[in-house]
Amino acid sequence: MATKQFQAESKRLLEMMINSIYSQKEIFLRELISNASDAIDKMYYKALTDDSITFNQEDYYIKVHADKDDRTLTIEDTGIGMTEEELENNLGVIAKSGSLAFKNENEIKDGHDIIGQFGVGFYSAFMVADIVTVYTKSADSTQAYKWQSNGADGYTIEPAEKAAAGTEVIIKLRENTEDENYDEFLEEHRLKSIVKKYSDYIRYPIKMDVTVQKPKDEEEKEFEDVQEEQTINSMVPIWRKNKSELETEDYEAFYAEKHYGFDKPLTHVHLSVDGAVRYQAILFIPENTPFDYYTREYEKGLELYSNGVLIMEKCADLLPDYFSFVKGIVDSEDLSLNISREMLQHDRQLKMIAKNIKNKIKSQLKTLLKEDREKYETFFKAFGRQLKFGVQMDFGSHKDDLKDLLLFYSSKEKKLVTLSEYVSRMPEEQQYIYYATGESYDRIEKLPQTEMVLDKGYEILYLNEDIDEFAIKTLMSYDDKPFKSVASGDLGIESDEDQEKEKEEQQDNKELFEEIKNLLSDKVKDVRASKRLKTHPVCLAADGEVSIEMEKVLQQMPD
Ligand code: ADP
Ligand code: MG
């Protein structure tokens, strides 16, 4: 029988697994169980669409079995199984998930990161195995197959005997060494706790033979150890549980298990809605910006389940772009399972859920802002830019949803403030919300244009991100107070007297200004006298709606 080689990518990952010094080797069990559960999902789905199959809940399970004498651990499932071709394609080639794709060589050599942060899949078995054997029979085939590999030397596939459809993965554990003990993966207690830790929400029973003490006779005086099959996982998905039964740690564990991010969620919302449309959802706001967040590669979306069965991994229609950072799941019994993606887009129920979710996220953020300012600022530093994009997206149609979630740096507070805080501090005679733009707060502070406004005792919002001013322009006003750039011609605070003087000086120096204007003819439109300057001899002012900073951005934009 010919031994086949793994594909290059797979080989690298395998080597990493074989040489792994990763301390959490236990995650191999999570990976194999999740594959088993996926396989049963596929079977379930097949039964729904194929009238010749009936899905009896009790026929579908995952079984973990340890054999201490053989030093083998078996993970068996009654899922869809694999054909010979599928074996070849699925276990000979690294999963397309592409966990390796964006990692650089150094990180891969180290391996720590990658194993901790990603679902590394089937090959993680080689962290603990000398030999992995897979017996599998596809629900579409009468022939079973055996796949075997020691990792390094490639793999073999041959026909085999297996009665029912499904898959058995047999791990021959490595010999113990001075530093490493693999026997722990044969211990009942250890196995049970790993299953609980990672796989508690798997929707199918994960069974194990467990030793229990039973009375030997009626009098219950003497006991003996007997093996009894038990279901270890609690199965009910976390989102179906009662909020009151759950701790923050449970949500964090779910977030990690789902690979929503490498961080911990900053906050979450757990919804159980029983109205015109029924659904459960858990939504997370991450703490950190995902590495690809502000790129085209980033895909927004929530996991969408129909009554506990996954129908879409990333349903984009559930989230507006400005909340694209939200992670989580939605499960609704009102959605049909066989719905196509195209139909889903127009689904009324889905639209209602999406709207509802949008409002829930908004109010969750408002609550965070009110009750935990520090956390909110962490959030805003990670995703505030996206909210500002949101303000000007779609011709500003979302600005009312977003205006109270924005923060800007304040000259007065020397920290981020909300627009409502700004307005509440405005002296009665102040007509405008003033802002100044520049590359950094430091530089903005030194702008000659800010002087007069600051002297008046008015607060200025310092905008240092290119998107800021676009958002402000879209908002136009807040609480009926229009925004005004300190660089604009008329600040609304010049006295009549000053304006008179300006006119006089303009008149007196007409020739001088003409001369300067001619010298700078390609750089400025006009040269004028100003009463606004205090300690600076000259400043640049923008004429019209587009500021100097905005012009810079506009010039950088591709046509
Ligand atoms: P992923 O689960 O992310 O696709 P894995 O490396 O865990 O990646 O598994 C690779 C593929 O092997 C799976 O996508 C699936 O097609 C197949 N597979 C693995 N385990 C099983 C199983 N127990 N039953 C059926 N197919 C399986
Ligand atoms: Mg997997």
TrEMBL record:
Origin: domain of life: Bacteria
Binding site for ATP: 31, 35, 77, 82, 90, 96-98, 117-122, 167, 341
UniProt GO MF annotations: ATP binding; ATP hydrolysis activity; ATP-dependent protein folding chaperone; unfolded protein binding
Record's keyword terms, sorted: ATP-binding, Chaperone, Cytoplasm, Nucleotide-binding, Stress response
Cell location: Cytoplasm
Chief localisation class: cytoplasm
Recorded family membership: Belongs to the heat shock protein 90 family.
Protein name: Chaperone protein HtpG
Organism of origin: Alteribacillus persepolensis
Designated gene of the protein: htpG
